[in-house]
Amino acid sequence: MSVHRTKYAAVVCGGGPAGITVLGNLLERKVGPVLWVDDLFEAGRVNKAYREVPSNTKVKLFVDFAEAVSPFQKILKETPSPHAVDYLRGLPQDTGCDLGYAADMCLLLTEGLKKAPGVEARQGRVTDAVLSETNDWVVNVKLSSGETSKAISSRVILCTGSSPTNQQLPVSISDLSPLELDHALSPTLLAKSLPKESTTVAVIGASHSAVLVLINLYNLASTTHPDLKIKWFTRHPLRYAEFMEGWIKRDNTGLKGAAAAWAKENLEPAKFGSSPVSRFIQKIAYEKENETRTYEQELAGCNRYVQAIGYTRDPLPGLKDAAGSDITYNYQPDTGSFKNVDGKQIPGLFGAGIAWPERVTDPEGSVEWAVGFWKFMRYAKRVVPDWN
Ligand SMILES: Cc1cc2nc3c(=O)[nH]c(=O)nc-3n(C[C@H](O)[C@H](O)[C@H](O)COP(=O)(O)OP(=O)(O)OC[C@H]3O[C@@H](n4cnc5c(N)ncnc54)[C@H](O)[C@@H]3O)c2cc1C
What share of residues in the chain are helix, strand, coil (percent, to 5)? Predict the structure, then answer.
């Protein structure tokens, strides 16, 4: 049954940090009414999966995020103290914190935004959006109640997020089962996922997430799980963010914060042999061309494997044109907009967040995707005024 059919200025699809950022910027620019749709309105993956992860950004950037637009400032003013942003303000500003603090800030902003004038929040999933001949989007939402609802809007903004990449292993090893990256990133869930008996876990990757998983596994092996062994599969040396004059080299791809400090101290070749971690972690360095042979040899005898090899966009709502054909889209990472296969701008379709980040070029010409709360905010402030 269809329960609504109303005209909106924008439909924001997703209630993670990116959806919160975009909504704050739309309201600041008096764009409304806005339909805001999310499965749960529980701040996306930062709250669901990363609460125990140490941040790779400074606390100050979370506070800056919370104060960046007037609709957020109003929410903070109207929320009784002490609230989540007060707790962030009370921490040392120039170091990281557990992402639980940032998640609580997002939950606070979510509650405020749901009640903000000009916002209608609908819990459910945007299933598809059809671009009419008059360039309006007809957006279908499957509500969590099971009902469907329809909305008409001149803009659809995809803040749909990304999840850990899982690739089929090129080898088949009996008794080897996957360990979800989300579980391995949480010390609490990891402890519950692994038995106390002799277990070998393979960690694949040299990313920020891979190092966080190695830290969590090492902490278990050196305390409650002494029979735990770890094999770390890596194809390249660890890469670190470097603080240059006025900019950060490998700002988005290099190790930062607690993970970088731990890796420098324990995993670098000059330190590894004498570090206590080498009692539990065996490093398997290999080249791409030897991958299958290395896996065949080294995964044999492992019980679990966790892939920490990046993040992949979550499935999008179906996007169709007025004739019912699928719209093929190319993301424009300088404007947050999309073009079709003919290079024409798709009217009213935009994206933000980890799935649709800004592309940045550093002073040495290296290109990266700008991912992080403050980067989403900086990008939104620049591009949202042009999302007409
Ligand atoms: C391990 C890790 C550590 C990180 N650490 C930091 C850090 O320290 N500092 C920092 O600034 N950033 C950090 N980030 C980066 C980034 O801030 C987070 O990844 C953030 O969660 C991305 O937010 P998002 O809103 O783009 O996506 P998500 O958090 O994934 O949110 C997407 C939301 O959209 C909803 N959704 C999706 N599709 C639909 C649909 N069709 N209909 C309705 N709702 C939908 C989902 O349910 C979800 O709620 C980290 C990322 C990772 C992976």
Answer: 30, 30, 40
Identify the residue whose C-alpha is closest to ligand 1 atom 27: 161
pLDDT exceeds cutoff 70 at 4: no
Decide whether any atom of ligand 1 lies within 6 Å of the 110 Cβ: no
For atom 41 of ligand 1, the residue with the nearest CA is 126
Does ligand 1 have an atom closer than 6 angstroms to the CB of 317? yes
**What is the spatial distance between Cα 338 and Cα 201, in angstroms, rounded to a whole number?**
41
* Mean pLDDT of the chain, nearest integer: 96
State pLDDT tens for residues 251-272: 999 999 999 999 999 999 999 9
**Is the pLDDT at 1 greater than 50, yes or no?**
no
Q: What is the 3-state secondary structure (H, E, C) of 112-123?
A: HHHHCCCEEEEE
Does 299 lie in the same domain as 316?
no
- CA of residue 311 to ligand 1 center, whole Å: 10
> Residue with structure tokens 């876990």?
201
Q: Is the CB of 205 under 6 A from ligand 1?
A: no
Does the CB atom of residue 53 touch ligand 1 within 6 A? yes
> Can you give the residue range of the structural domain that contains 278?
166-309
Give per-residue pLDDT as tens, 269-321: 999 999 999 999 999 999 999 999 999 999 999 999 999 999 999 999 999 99
Please say which residue of 270, 292, 309 terminates a domain: 309
Q: Residue 2 pLDDT > 70, yes or no? A: no
Residue with CA closest to ligand 1 atom 32: 161
User: Cβ of 339: how many Cβ atoms within 10 Å?
Assistant: 16
